[in-house]
Amino acid sequence: MLDVTGLRKTYRGRERDVEAVRDLTFRIAEGELACLVGPSGCGKTTLLKCVAGLLEPTSGTVRLGGRAVTGPPPDMAVVFQEYGRSLFPWLTVRGNVELPLKEKRLPRDRRRALVAEALEAVGLAGAGDRHPWELSGGMQQRVAIARAIAYEPRVLLMDEPFAAVDAQTRADLEDLIRALWRRFSMTVLFVTHDIDEAVYLGQRVLVLSSSPTVVHDDIAIDLPGERDQLTTRADPRFTELRARIYADIRHAKRGPAPGAATAGDGTARA
Ligand code: ADP
Ligand code: MG
Q1: What residues does the ABC transporter domain cover (predicted)?
Q2: Would you say the CB of residue 11 lies under 6 angstroms from ligand 1?
Q3: Which residue's alpha carbon is at the smallest distance from atom 25 of ligand 1?
Q4: Domains and CATH numbers, the chain
Q5: Are 168 and 89 in contact (CB under 8 A)?
Q6: What is the Å distance from ligand 2's center to 159 Cα?
Q7: DSSP code of residue 154
Q8: Closest ligand 1 atom to the C-alpha of 18?
Q9: Nearest CA, atom 15, ligand 1
């Protein structure tokens, strides 16, 4: 479904160049919910922008359903971290969710039905006439999610979408994403720096190293499909998986030559 091959991105600067992504290769299957976890500044946003066709890679390719991505693909939606800035303050909630559907040139009745369904799915059925600035941060982020799913994307990209909301809202939004993924069977690529969040959400977690950025590990999350904030996070397997990823990231930070101390770390934590 989504194929990233040898992706490299260097930002050209006046003073110096910044290599944001060194060499990323991975493949996400249709209908998969994959999380990508890596430390701040390792190039996660850069990668997503390349996948979304908003940024041109320095080298390497991104293919979606077999076709090279050279601009924003029509069947993809993106939810960014800065939801406040991604909503139009002069439009109502309904207007914000409907806007991309107008650009898609859907007939009015169809647009109305999709907007209503999406707002209902994110628990904002009664908020259509309000404006984004009348809503809490968590509600605004739900509007951004509603806008993405109303669009009926085959692929949904999310870039640390819950980083700015409180812990309870965040837990609710995580459950919302899993519920929507199961209901609408989209392919989801969810980027986060939060290891626990990645394990809780994903069927699979790709671990990125800090620069030079490569895919350091690719872990199948063999937790039951029915997840619950309390029982899943208390599952010994959950603890094992997060410990493995913590060790991985530490290892990645130490560079390509693993020493005895690194191996010891992994065992002590597992
Ligand atoms: P992440 O999302 O993982 O925190 P980013 O993709 O935002 O990482 O950034 C990766 C690296 O690229 C960082 O060193 C960052 O400073 C640099 N970078 C990001 N955007 C730009 C840009 N537009 N111009 C120059 N450097 C950038
Ligand atoms: Mg980022």
Answers
A1: 2-235
A2: yes
A3: 11
A4: 1-72+191-270 (3.40.50.300)
A5: no
A6: 7
A7: S
A8: 26
A9: 41
What SS3 class is residue 70? coil
Measured between alpha carbons, how far is residue 247 from residues 24, 93, 208, 262, 266 in Å? Answer: 21, 42, 13, 8, 5
C-alpha 7 – ligand 2 centre gap (Å): 17
Q: CA–CA separation, 178 vs 200, rounded Å?
A: 10
Tokens in use for 249? 């990231």
Instruction: List pLDDT tens digits, range 6-54.
Output: 999 999 988 899 888 999 999 999 999 999 998 888 899 999 999 999 9
DSSP state of 125: G
| Strand-pair partners of 158 | 79, 190
Give the span between the Cα atoms of 65 and 83, in whole angstroms.
28
Ligand 1 atom 10: the closest Cα is on which residue? 43
Q: Strand 187-192 and strand 155-159: pairing? A: parallel
Which ligand lies nearest the alpha carbon of 81?
2
pTM of the model: 0.89
